[in-house]
Amino acid sequence: MSIKLVFLFILLSSSVLGNGDGNSGKYPIVVSTWPFVDAVRAAWRVADGGFSAVDAVVEGCSTCEELRCDGTVGPGGSPDENGETTIDALIMNGATMEVGAVAAMRFVKDGIRAARLVMQHTEHTLLAGEKASAFAIAMGLPGPANLSSAESMDKWTKWRENGCQPNFWKNVVPVDGCGPYQPKCNMGPSEGECPASNLMGVTESGSSYVGLHSHDTISMAVIDKMGHVAVGTSTNGATFKIPGR
Ligand SMILES: *[C@@H]1O[C@H](CO)[C@@H](O)[C@H](O)[C@H]1NC(C)=O
């Protein structure tokens, strides 16, 4: 997710530099991951109306949050191990180099708007968890709300019935059941170390295949009529993630 975002940022930054300050009718430009056409259209309308790249990114990513694009953006998707949906989002303003983000935000569905509030109203970059929720609600976003859906609860129930497989644990016991989990062996210096065979097992299970179905989520980049760049992303994260991820 973040690599994609940095790539888009560099790509668009260099195209702006190459073009100088003047707008020769090339802008606005809106780019998004995946065919999230409605999100791109929403961002385009804002940018084409003369509003800032930041406004356009917020509108575009918000549209995906409302539409629950692919089930990977906004509420109602990607339950964690407890069955709860949480939200991550980030926005960068290329004109000012400001960044705002929220991570593992509970009970508030408006990820990208919360990220913008962090950027615009704090000296921080990232707020996390329940404190991010409290901030977002205090700043006027709706909540607290239940971010689960019938679909996410159903997915989660089936996963529980399947012994909580697959999951994101490694080097723990039990290997093929639900938690609570414990370290398979003590890894601290005073407690002795894992046998080499265990560590090799970690390496193998950690190298996952990267392809069309191994990633998702909206990332969006906009150049507004002024030639300013903004980028953003919003997601409900990995399905069956360990809470807090
Ligand atoms: C949240 O919504 C889901 C899906 O509608 C429901 O199953 C669950 O019980 C709700 N949780 C709470 C705490 O209301």
Automatic annotation (TrEMBL):
This protein's UniProt keywords: Autocatalytic cleavage, Signal
Active site (UniProt): 217
Record site feature (Cleavage), residues: 216-217
Example of a GO MF term: beta-aspartyl-peptidase activity
Alphabetical list of Pfam families matching this protein: Asparaginase_2
Signal peptide: 1-18
Keyword match Signal: yes
Catalysed transformations (reactions): Cleavage of a beta-linked Asp residue from the N-terminus of a polypeptide
Top-level taxon of the source organism: Eukaryota
Enzyme Commission number, as recorded: 3.4.19.5
Subunit note: Heterotetramer of two alpha and two beta chains arranged as a dimer of alpha/beta heterodimers.
Entries under PANTHER family matching the protein: L-ASPARAGINASE (PTHR10188), N(4)-(BETA-N-ACETYLGLUCOSAMINYL)-L-ASPARAGINASE (PTHR10188:SF6)
Protein name: beta-aspartyl-peptidase
